[in-house]
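so im writing up the methods section and need the Glutamine--fructose-6-phosphate aminotransferase [isomerizing] record in one place, dumping it here so i stop losing it
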Amino acid sequence: MCGIVGAIARRNVAKILLEGLSRLEYRGYDSSGVAINNLDGVSSHRAVGKVQALRDKFTAEPLDGKIGIAHTRWATHGKPTEANAHPHFSGEDLALVHNGIIENHEPLRRELKAKGYEFKSETDTEVIVHLIHDALKTEPDLLKAVQNVLTKLHGAFAIGVVKNDENGRFIAARKGSPLVVGVGIEENFIASDQLALLHVTDQFIFLEEGDVVELTRDQVTIFDEKGEVQERPISVFNHNVDATDKGEFRHYMMKEIYEQSSVISACLEGRISETKVLTSCFGAESEFLKDIENVHIVACGTSYHAGMVAKYWIEDLAGIPCSVEVASEYRYRKVAVPKKTLFLTLSQSGETADTLAALRMAKELGYLTTLAICNVPSSTLVRESALTLLTNAGPEIGVASTKAFTTQLTALLITSVAIAVENGLSAEKEQELVQAMRSLPAYINDALAQDAHIKVIADRFANKHNALFLGRGTMFPIALEGSLKLKEISYIHAEAYPAGELKHGPLALVDEDMPIIALVPHNDMLDKLKSNLQEVAARGGELYVFADKETDLHNEDNIVFTEVPKVDRILEPIVHTIPLQLLSYHVAVVKGTDVDQPRNLAKSVTVE
Ligand code: G6P
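--- predicted struct ---
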C-alpha cells in the first residue's frame, strides 16, 4: 500500500516519476504527489485522487528538475486529503515519501512538538521528515542523519528523501516495506516495485531489510543495517513490458481473465511430464517431500481461498493433515507445530505484510521447511523462504486477483500430487492426474466461451444489494472466492456458505430479492446439492446455477443455468472459478464501478 518512486538523472525526471506512479496505482490511489529538487529549491505538486489529477497539475504548472521523489497513497493515518498526501516537508528544503507504518509515531510526534516542530498532516510519515530535519542540526550529512533517524523508528518503511542543497544525490531506505533500485546509464532510480521503472530500465537491485542507499547519477551505494557498504547483485527483468498493457481489453481484469489459459500453461511448463510431476521444480532440495507428515498453509485474501482448496487436495490425495489459516490470525497466536510439518505460504505479490510476518514467525517454530508459492520471483517472500514454486502468471495489475489465483491453484495441485506420490499415490493415479492437468488450459478456454451469456445474466444483478454463493467440497472455497470478487469490484454484499450449512441460518435470508449462486459440478455431492437447491427454490429464491451438462440441470422458472465444462473432479475448482470471475466483472461494468481499482482497496497490502 502506497507506492514510491525516485529518480536522479541528467534529464528532467518529472515524466519518469509520473509514469512510475501510474504504474504503481495498483498499490493505492487516494492521492499522489511529487517533489522535484532543482537549483531553485525543492518544489512539489500534490493532488487528491488518482495520478491523473496530479498530471493535470503538472500540465497547468510544469516542474522541472533532475532529482525527484514521488508517491501514490493508500490512506492509513489520516483521510485522503491534499494535506495528508506525500511528499511531506520539514521546512522548505527537505522532502520525504514513505510507504509503511511508523508504529511509534505518537511519542515521536510529542517529542518533536516539544522541540517546536509544527505538523501539517495527520500522517505517521511526517514525524520521519521532521526527525531528519532535527538530526541534521547535529549531523549535517544527509546520509548519516537518515541512518541515525531510522534507528528510532518502529514499524515498516520504505522511504525516499531529497534535500535542496544535495544536488548530486538522494537517499532511500527500506525495512519491512518493499523497495528496489533501478540501475540506468548515468541515471538511477528507486521504486516500490520494478514494474514502476520498466519504462526506464530492466536492471534491478533488490534491497535487503535495513538497507540504506545513496543514489547519485553514476553510483548506487548500499549500506546495510550496521552501516557497512554492501554489494548486492543486479538482476535483469525478464518479463515482457507489454504485460502491463491493457491491449484490446477495456480493463486489466478482463485481460487477465483471458490470459489464464496461457499462464496456466506457463505454470505447468517444466513441472510435469507426460506421466509425472517433476519434483525438480522445487529445486535441488526436493527430498523434503518424502519427510512431510503435515502441512500448514498460511495466506491472505484470495490466496487464502487457494489454500483452502489445497487442504481438500492434500488430505484427499496424500492422506496427511493439512490446516489453512489467514496470516493475520496465525501471526498473533501460539501455534502448535506437529513434527515434520511443511510451512507453505501463498502470495501473489510476495510482499503482503501479514504473510511475511507469519513466515518470519514460522521460521522460529521448528517446521520441516518453508515453501512459498508466489508470482513475483524477486519478492521478499521468495527471498526469505527456503523453497519456492513460482506461479508464472506474469504481472497482475487488476486489484481483484484472477490469473494469480488460478495459477496458485495450479501450483498447489502440482505440490499436492508431489506430496501424495511420497505418501503412496499410485503411479497410475499420478499419470491420470497429470493428464488431467495437461487439459486444463483447453478447459479454461471452454469456460471462457460462456462470456457473452454471463454478460447477459450480469444485468440482473445490477440492482441487487446482496448475493449468496453456495458450494460443497472444493466448491466451497470457490464460492468464497466468487463472493469476494463480487463484493470487491461491484460493491454488492455477498456471502458464501457450504451448501449444507444453508439450513443453519442463511436460509432465513432467502427471498425473491436474493440471487443465489450455486456451483454444481457433476460429482458425488450432486444429489446432496440438488436437495439444497430445492430448499432455496421452495422459498422463492432466484437460483443462478453454474453446472456441467451431466448434472441434468437446465433453465427453469426460477433457475438461470450457465454451463461449465465437464472436467476431471480434481480440476473442478479451477474451471468453476472462470465463470464467477466473468460474472463479477460484468456486474461491475453494468454498475459502472472502477473495475481495476475498486474503492478503498489496494493490490499489494504491505501494511498490517
Ligand atoms: C490484497 C489484494 C488481494 C490479495 C491479498 C493477498 O487484499 O487486493 O487481491 O488476495 O491482498 O495478497 P497476496 O499478494 O499475498 O496474494
